[in-house]
Amino acid sequence: MNVNQSAPPVPPFGQSQPIYPGYHQSSYGGQPGSAVPPTPYGAYNGPVPGYQQTHPQGVSRAPPSSGAPPVSTAQAPCGQAAYGQFGQGDIQNGPSSTVQMQRLPGSQQFGSPLAPVVSQPAVLQPYGPPPTSAQVTAQLAGMQLSGAVAPAPPPSGLGYGPPTSLASASGSFPNSGPYGSYPQGQASPLSQAQGHPGVQPPLRSAPPLASSFTPPASGGPRMPSMTGPLPPGQGFGGPPVSQPNHVSSPPVQALPPGTQMTGPPVPPPPMHSPQQPGYQLQQNGSFGPAGGPQPSYGGPYPGAPNFGSQPGPPQPLPPKRLDPDAIPSPIQVIEDDRNNRGSEPFVTGVRGQVPPLVTTNFLVKDQGNASPRYIRCTSYNIPCTSDMAKQAQVPLAAVIKPLARLPPEEASPYVVDHGESGPLRCNRCKAYMCPFMQFVEGGRRFQCCFCSCVNDVPPQYFQHLDHTGKRVDAYDRPELSLGSYEFLATVDYCKNNKFPSPPAFIFMIDVSYNAIRTGLVRLLCEELKSLLDYLPREGGAEESAIRVGFVTYNKVLHFYNVKSSLAQPQMMVVSDVADMFVPLLDGFLVNVNESQAVITSLLDQIPEMFADTRETETVFAPVIQAGMEALKAAECAGKLFLFHTSLPVAEAPGRLKNRDDRKLINTDKEKTLFQPQTGAYQTLAKDCVAQGCCVDLFLFPNQYVDVATLSVVPQLTGGSVYKYACFQVENDQERFLSDLRRDIQKVVGFDAVMRVRTSTGIRAVDFFGAFYMSNTTDVELAGLDGDKTVTVEFKHDDRLNEESGAVLQCALLYTSCAGQRRLRIHNLALNCCTQLADLYRNCETDTLINYMAKFAYRGVLNSPVKTVRDTLITQCAQILACYRKNCASPSSAGQLILPECMKLLPVYLNCVLKSDVLQPGAEVTTDDRAYVRQLVTSMDVAETNVFFYPRLLPLTKSPIESTSEPPAVRASEERLSNGDIYLLENGLNLFLWVGASVQQGVVQSLFNVSSFTQITSGLGVLPVLDNPLSKKVRGLIASLRAQRMRYMKLIVVKQEDKLEMLFKHFLVEDKSLSGGASYVDFLCHMHKEIRQLLS
Ligand SMILES: [Zn+2]
Fold first, then answer.
1. Sec23/Sec24 beta-sandwich domain: which residues (predicted)?
2. b/e map of 586-599 (b: 16 or more CB within 10 Å)?
């Protein structure tokens, strides 16, 4: 490996490289590559030991009972009596069709009647009484603003809220957790269909989108607040705020103590009238009209204390009300950014530019820095010294998505081929040639922008400089003019100095009783017959170079020989799972086209062969082991697609026991719920990574399967985990097949290594994502797809320089789908500052939240959840207090002043704090938490944004003919109008909420029934009707699904229906049933924390 070698001279590539059109293809070029050579760099202290960072977590919701898990071995069929119908008679699983196939020894062996165990939790339990609306609409009256009042301090215990209705709730949503599947049939006992209960929370139909808060982006007079310093005097209650530091975007919001916002709506530049003492937010001076009285928002703090550590004795101060319309609105911020920045392309030529928000659609023009689609930072202006950084507490991190997919309008990175000499690098730090390298001495040498080493330019690469010192061919070479590009790697970058073979996909299918019973095996085999024609391929290649292989298993493994010369597939059984080996080499991994007939035959036979199986036990680790050994034998990298249904209790390595115990929640042992129960899977994962074996796991559990343990290998190998709780073909087929198709077709880089280099002064110290690290600098990914991100945190190790700024270079070495070895390079230059105000003006809150969520989600592996929550709150308070102290102008302590670009930090942080991982509701299973934890670990900024703060779209507000997406409203119950219909999505879940007073015509148009009461609650599919509204809504649903990585299953929820409780879980500005604070309450709490820090 040539990490250390300097690049040999290469023929100049005078011309620009051809662009590979299309999505990922660019990444595949033509040559073989190599593995990342380990470079001799000092270790960074950072990374957490490989394993911890990566724990993924499970997916689905277990069946209802939240109580003790059912007997360990017995799998509770979701909702159905399990094996009842099963006769004992037929025990043979052997293939029946071909003579050549051997009988499964295993099956015979286990023919003994396994007593089908069945006692499972009944699935459908009646829904408990929904929480009374009173509960939800707690009144503000109780609220106290921190300024002066301490919110009723809840016991700092964990925030489990009012236990009240929870208990019943838990039992009630059997299959419907947010992460699980929500089988309709079982859903709710629709008794409550008859909606309009007399008592309805006050509904507002047209949410006042906090107009006053932020100035209209375009159109309309612009409020002073967003752009310039705050005009003094505009402020509202409180002393005028002017912020000298905010040169360009002074943001400020102040909560004048003692002011109350509940008065009647007031016109904009409002005022605070004496009678309305309360807190008013001041946003750069401009205030919006105070909304009308809002009876229902967030709950008052009263019993819900979940704020981490909070002392505050309740103080009986006069209740203050904070107008929700006066506090920073995510919707408004998103809308403003779209209006301000969505029309112009984002040109990357300027150092330290903050890109548009992830929620804004914009095009990117690469002019020397990587597109924000590849890298987003928490701040684009880094403090020059570590002291400043410590003072501000703003994490310095980059969220990197090396193989991000691009919109069709943007070209994939050019591929540069420097021939045998390979890419040109700095001799000392090994950074790759990039636009920031400085050519000197007439072009004969170049100075490295990372380590300052002066290197000779190889003769072949020599070029003259122009009068500005720039190479005259700079614009002809991607590596001298663009932020992102690829190099073809030489054999030096390959494992064992050998160009890699094309990768392979191995399908490993659980054929135990549960998998057969649900129809999964038949569905999957049928789908694979056609899906195999769509394996990823290189650019214009006619067929995919990827070979495929098949294994089925229960407590033994069955390998299949599908060589094209065979008339029928042959099965080989391996029952010694303790010492796994691959019984055949020739004929196991084959070309899909050549072996089409045999493969089709096999896929036809598998469901038949095991149709009568009674085997309920499965193994898991040996299956992965077998796939990895098969790849090793074939000397290639690849991916295993595992379709698995149950806790692997069969006697074998990696055997697991049911250890689910909800009683551990809120105890110091809660972390064990997130940790794997055995270290065996980490060891296995390490072997997989060494082989370039990535594992994608599809789970179909009926009950607890220990996602925390099963997802270890996928997580450490860069794979994905999907979970379909209580899978039933009728209800879940579409979702599963959609995910499967996308997963199999997506382009993947195999056997990858990523290294992030930085200019002197900062260095990468910590990493978050789905990967493995065997040292402190190299992120190893058996596989990396276009959805996965790696979040990297930086720390100072020296002083930075304002003039030179800071440079990051992410280099990803990987093998393409066709077996070509490549290097993808992303460069990004950032500004450095000596004034804190500059830092606070150039932060990106969405990215901060992405980092903080990942940090917290990793923290729960080692610390009590409460500690993790407290840490987040403290850090957030420190960030905001530092701003207040150093950047904001002096003002009353009662004012809450937030930096403009961080004004959403409190609301978003609160969403993270009350997420299922950090504050689970009673209906959230241990597997769900593990699943979500693992999912979030690899999410990009756009995904975490919508995941933590869901989008709520009113459907009948905008004109029917409007083709654009309706503007979203804030995620709060008070924004729901009972005369409207809304879609809510968070990237994983999709709800259609129907108000009880929706016009009959609308009901008819969408559901084809005559009244609200006739709508089926829990419905998963809208009827296909030929009218504009139906088409529009179905079109919108399709469009939302297309934007997300995973198929979102629809659930129709009727107002006042019991399922509504599940829906309300996503109204994140409200107080949650699990005790999570409302936005208003949290803001007050944060204000109090800040004041404490300042005093
Ligand atoms: Zn260097």
1. 749-832
2. ebbbbbbeebbebb
Find the 448 Cα to ligand 1 centroid distance in Å. Answer: 5
Q: Which helix (H) or strand (E) holds 734?
A: helix 729-745
Distance 848 CA to ligand 1 centre (A): 29
User: Radius of gyration (Cα) for the chain, nearest Å?
Assistant: 29
Ligand 1 is a single-atom ion; what residues have CB below 5 A from it?
426, 428-429, 431, 448, 450-451, 453
How far is the centre of ligand 1, averaged over its atoms, from the C-alpha of 275 (Å)? 65
The encoded tokens of residue 1009 equal 């029934």
Q: List, for residues 552-584, the tens digit of each pLDDT value.
A: 999 999 999 999 999 999 999 999 999 888 998
Query: Kind and range of the H or E element at 382?
Result: strand 381-383
Q: What percent of the chain has pLDDT over 70?
A: 71
Contact 816, 28 (CB under 8 A): yes
Structure tokens at 756: 């992030």
What is the residue-averaged pLDDT of the chain?
A: 78
Pull the structure tokens for residue 427.
Answer: 């001799």
Instruction: For 501-545, write each residue's pLDDT tens digit.
Output: 999 999 999 999 999 999 999 999 999 999 999 999 887 788 899
Cα separation of 497 and 516, whole Å? 45
* Global pTM value: 0.76
Specify the range with the lowest mean pLDDT, choosing from 283-297, 486-500, 688-702, 832-846: 283-297
Residue 320's contacts (CB-CB under 8 Å, 6 or more residues apart) are 143, 144, 145, 148, 149, 258, 259, 260, 277, 278, 279
What does the block give as tokens for 245?
């530091």
Structure tokens at 174: 């059997």
CA 809 – ligand 1 centroid, Å? 11
CA 454 / ligand 1 centre spacing (Å): 8
Task: Compute the distance from residue 699 Cα to the ligand 1 centre, in Å.
Answer: 46
The rounded Å distance from CA 824 to ligand 1 centre is: 18
Centre of ligand 1 to C-alpha 452, Å, is: 6
Integer distance in angstroms from the first to the last C-alpha of the chain? Answer: 57
Question: Separation of 453 CA from ligand 1 center, angstroms?
Answer: 5
- Give the Cβ contact number of residue 668 at 10 Å: 12
Distance (Å) from CA 432 to ligand 1 centroid: 8
- Give the chain's length: 1095
Backbone region of residue 972 per phi and psi (left: phi > 0; alpha: psi in -120 to 50; beta: other values): beta
Q: Residue 7: exposed, middle, or buried by beta-carbon count in 10 A (0-12, 13-18, 19+)?
A: buried
| Ligand 1 centroid – CA 139 distance (Å) | 61
Query: From the CA of 662, how far away is ligand 1's center (Å)?
Result: 52
Q: Which residues contact 1030 (CB under 8 A, 6 or more apart)?
A: 1005, 1006, 1022, 1023, 1024
Amino acid at 854: K
* d(CA 758, ligand 1 centre) in Å: 10
DSSP 819: S
| CA 433–ligand 1 middle distance (angstroms) | 10
Q: Measured over all CA atoms, what is the biggest interatomic distance in the chain, rounded to whole angstroms?
A: 92
> 576 C-alpha to center of ligand 1: Å?
52
Using alpha carbons, select from 605, 596, 588 the residue that is nearest to residue 530.
596
Q: 318 and 335 in contact (C-beta within 8 Å)?
A: no
**Ligand 1 center from residue 856 Cα (angstroms):** 34
Quote the ligand 1 centre to 461 CA distance (angstroms): 17
Q: In a 3-state reduction of DSSP, which class is residue 673?
A: helix
Q: What's the rounded Cα separation, in Å, for the pair 25 and 52?
A: 33
Residue 757 CA to ligand 1 centre (angstroms): 9
Q: Are strands 557-561 and 484-488 parallel, antiparallel or unpaired?
A: unpaired
The residue-averaged pLDDT of 422-449 equals: 97
Cα(414)–Cα(877) distance, rounded to whole angstroms?
44
CA 451 to ligand 1 center in whole angstroms: 4
